[in-house]
Amino acid sequence: MPPGLLTGLADPQLSRTLTALHEAPGEPWSLAQMAQQAGMSRSAFAARFKAVVGDTPADYLAHWRLTLAQAHLRAGRSLKSIAHELGYANPSALSRVFAQKLGMSARDWREAVDEGR
User: Fold this and answer.
1) Do residue 13 and residue 48 come from a single domain?
2) 68 burial class (0-12, 13-18, 19+ CB within 10 angstroms)?
3) Which domain range does residue 89 map to?
4) Which of 6, 45, 60, 111 could link 35 by a cystine bridge, Cβ 3.0 to 4.6 Å?
């Protein structure tokens, strides 16, 4: 099976962390906290997560948070209203990650989604 979420959920230790990340994406997750959820050392957890899921734990969490942000934006919410619940210190921080990972601002993304409807 190729790396990904399903492969990670099939791993008994990683599944605990993945479930926790999905249930509480806004928590201030550190590598140490994620590894603790899995009952592993940080280095062993990071290596296994990357091998099994295909992303680093931090990248996976950022992508999950952005997936949620996109859903909230589609529903008409603003970055200001979702930033804290998704674990960002402020809307600017979420905006920077959005542009870094998706290659466009949240505003441009939202306009593209609206044009596609």
Assistant:
1) yes
2) middle
3) 62-115
4) 45
